Amino acid sequence: MGSAKVSGHPEVGIVGAGLMGHAIGQLFTLRGFSVSLFDANRQVLEEAPARIRSNFRAFLDMGLVTVDDVEGSLSRIRLCRDLEETAPNAVLVIEAVNENLALKQRLFAELERYVGPDTVLSSNTSAISITLIAEPLERKERLVGTHFWNPPHIVP
Q1: This model's pTM is above 0.85
Q2: Strand 120-123 versus strand 34-38 pairing type
Q3: What is the DSSP code string of 20-68?
Q4: CA-based nearest residue to 95, from 146, 49, 132
Q5: CATH number at residue 73
Q6: Is 153 inside any structural domain?
Q7: What residues contact residue 49 under an 8 Å CB cut-off, 6+ apart?
Q8: Which helix (H) or strand (E) segment is 116 a member of?
Q9: For each of the chain's 156 residues, which pLDDT tens digit applies?
Q10: Catalytic residue among 9, 22, 147, 153
Q11: Which residue from 111, 59, 69 is spatially nearest to 90, judged by alpha carbons?
């Protein structure tokens, strides 16, 4: 499976568009990556671009980004209605859902069916063992932990 590229950057999938996920996606798009964003809650998903635009306000006011940066970033986000369309071209898929082991295990087991053989799966968990999350996976070695601090668009 090939990866979609924007400006030479591979595609990143983000699962969970709430508190952390939308801002994690913002980080990647600001650096030129295309992002496929999914959330099971349609309202949260639909509100993500407005939340990202709002996140940029302080950066605009301080002169850290331009309007073109913001619009370019938002143009690189694709809202996905189902999990399957989030992942097939991604080289990295980051999960940012509730801290619930069973939920994360089900999610990654499903994701594993949709991603390419070299796709890295990543959990933004802050408390759950990556080893436990990976238990149901066929290729456990592809799951890593990448804990972003809140708010991820501000805290390095």
Answers
A1: yes
A2: unpaired
A3: THHHHHHHHHHTT-EEEEE-SSHHHHHHHHHHHHHHHHHHHHTTSS-HH
A4: 146
A5: 3.40.50.720
A6: no
A7: 74, 77, 79
A8: none
A9: 334 444 467 899 999 999 999 999 999 999 999 999 999 999 999 999 999 999 999 899 999 999 999 999 999 999 999 999 998 889 999 999 999 999 999 999 999 999 998 999 999 998 999 999 999 999 999 999 998 877 777 666
A10: 147
A11: 111
Q: Taking Cα atoms as reference points, which of 7, 26, 8 lies closest to residue 17?
A: 26
Is the Cβ–Cβ distance between 18 and 47 less than 8 Å? no
**Residue 147 bears catalytic tag:** yes
Q: What is the CB neighbour count within 10 angstroms for residue 56?
A: 21
In a domain, 45, yes or no: yes
Given a contact cutoff of 8 angstroms between Cβ atoms, the answer to whether 101 and 19 are in contact is no
Structure tokens at 117: 């053989």
The candidate with the shortest Cα–Cα distance to 96, out of 40, 34, 32, 31, is: 40
Q: How many domains does the chain have?
A: 1
Domain that holds residue 96: 5-145
Token code pair at residue 38: 């999914």
